[in-house]
Write a structure and sequence with these properties.
Layout: H1 3-15, H2 20-25, E1 30-31, H3 32-43, H4 51-57, E2 63-71, E3 78-86, E4 89-100, H5 116-120, H6 130-135, E5 138-146, E6 158-166, H7 174-187, E7 190-191, H8 198-212, E8 216-220, E9 226-227, E10 230-231, H9 241-277
Antiparallel strand pairs: 1-5, 2-3, 2-6, 3-4, 4-5, 5-7, 6-8, 9-10
């Protein structure tokens, strides 16, 4: 949870402008790993005032559409916007993206490609560290944030590259999207300017999402992975691309199955003990508890 969210959340709850469940699902700004962890804890909660309501809400938060955008201005940052259905509320929009985290000097670097133009001309000089800056290891900062205006990015500032529309029978829900964002991050937690940048992160999420669920129609509108018309990341030219996608897809499926099983078992146990407390199971033997490993 971000510092701003930590400060504002109690106030918004008091005013009735938001609730704990929605803040976990639609954060102001959060790292994708923390987001996924918060959602899993929410849906597997045993608290009778929180768990059952959250689990009943879970399948209603369906992924309606995923879009891949490119910013028109340098560094031509690419990111994902997901449209999620919300019961008795307008659909929500979540923005998922990758940045370079702070470098070794503590200087914030929103996207290393932004400094590429100024450093590339100096890279051949033995008296500068420009080349080492581009090749140095920097942690990837993969985040999710809620677009509060509820509108798709403006065409005046961003270009739509690709969109994937989920039909009514598509089973993808918000939980699955959070898991996928985490799995892609965990596959490559280091930001690399020419291979594991925002282009790779957004494109990989789109590819794995579309290949993991049925009932999706997609449309490619523009080319991705270019900065100032220079190909930085070309998925088709990437070695072992299919193997990489399959590996991430396999990890995604394993995590998805684990979480689905965890939520289902917790829900069954809560229902069982709630029923026993109400006298519905006095004549029945207690069922064994299944431990997930």
């Amino acid at each position: 949870m971000s510092f701003l969210q930590l400060i504002l959340s109690p106030l918004l709850r008091i005013l009735g402008m938001s609730n704990p469940t929605e803040l976990d699902e639609f954060p102001y700004n959060n790292k994708v790993n923390s987001w996924e962890d918060s959602i899993v804890q929410l849906y597997s909660a045993v608290d009778p005032a929180r768990g059952p309501v959250s689990r009943a809400r879970m399948p209603l938060l369906k992924v309606l559409e995923l879009r891949l955008y490119k910013a028109k201005l340098s560094p031509e940052h690419e990111y994902i916007v997901a449209k999620i259905s919300r019961p008795q509320q307008p659909d929500g929009l979540l923005r998922i993206e990758r940045f370079a985290d702070r470098d070794i000097n503590g200087k914030a670097d929103g996207d290393t490609l932004q400094s590429f133009q100024s450093t590339s001309s100096l890279a051949s000089s033995p008296n500068t560290s420009a080349s080492s800056q581009l090749s140095s290891k920097v942690d990837a900062l993969d985040t999710v944030s809620t677009m509060r205006n509820g509108e798709w990015p403006s065409e005046n500032h961003d270009v739509l590259i690709e969109k994937a529309v989920c039909k009514r029978d598509c089973p993808a829900i918000l939980l699955h999207l959070a898991i996928l964002a985490k799995i892609v991050h965990d596959d490559s937690p280091i930001y690399r300017t020419f291979s594991r940048q925002c282009y790779w992160y957004a494109d990989t999420i789109m590819r794995v999402f579309q290949s993991s669920f049925s009932g999706i129609t997609s449309e490619r509108c523009e080319e991705s992975g270019k900065w100032n018309r220079i190909p930085i990341y070309d998925p088709e030219a990437t070695k072992n691309l299919e193997d990489i996608v399959c590996e991430i897809k396999r990890a995604f499926k394993q995590r998805q199955d684990y979480v689905d099983k965890l939520v289902r078992i917790v829900d069954q146990l809560c229902r069982h003990y709630t029923g026993a407390h109400n006298g519905q199971y006095r004549s029945k033997k207690a069922k064994p508890i299944l431990i997930i490993t």
